[in-house]
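Fold this complex.
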Amino acid sequence: MKGKLTEEEIVSGLEKLQGWSREADGKWIVKKYRFSDYLAGIAFVERAARIAELELNHHPMISIDYKLVTLRLTSWHAGGLTALDFEAAARFDEVWNG
Amino acid sequence: MKGKLTEEEIVSGLEKLQGWSREADGKWIVKKYRFSDYLAGIAFVERAARIAELELNHHPMISIDYKLVTLRLTSWHAGGLTALDFEAAARFDEVWNG
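Structure:
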């Protein structure tokens, strides 16, 4: 489950998600979440970070540009994307969907 | 107080802070805060964000790369750095120092 995914697996994984795309070099998946309230975005970050630390042990790169929160995922140990990145993406979307 | 600072004022402002520096284009000041615990970094972000929203009405760009939290400040309306950026930097350091 923790090996680097094939191209086919990545394409298939992205089809099952909404709003996630690959970054240019192909080693990351990224999603931008927009909030109408700044502190709602911060609360989302806090919840996603707890899940990253306590459930997944897998941490997204997070950037907060006012009401726009960007999450980026990769698996350093594998040098690319693994099943864990897609599992994490789905979990963060669950948090976002409330 | 909200006008763009002169070079001299920026140099003087940076001398009064610890760990803040200018980014290459000179329009931003930046500091990287390192934490020994991931969720401690997230708690810092949460506290800094509340101050940004509720006290300062001035929001840093925030990036979270595991236990490394980076804050970047600029004043869009002034096209550069203003006194508010330095006030915000000092407040975030207060939060960080506990």
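The first helix of chain B runs from residue 7 to 15.
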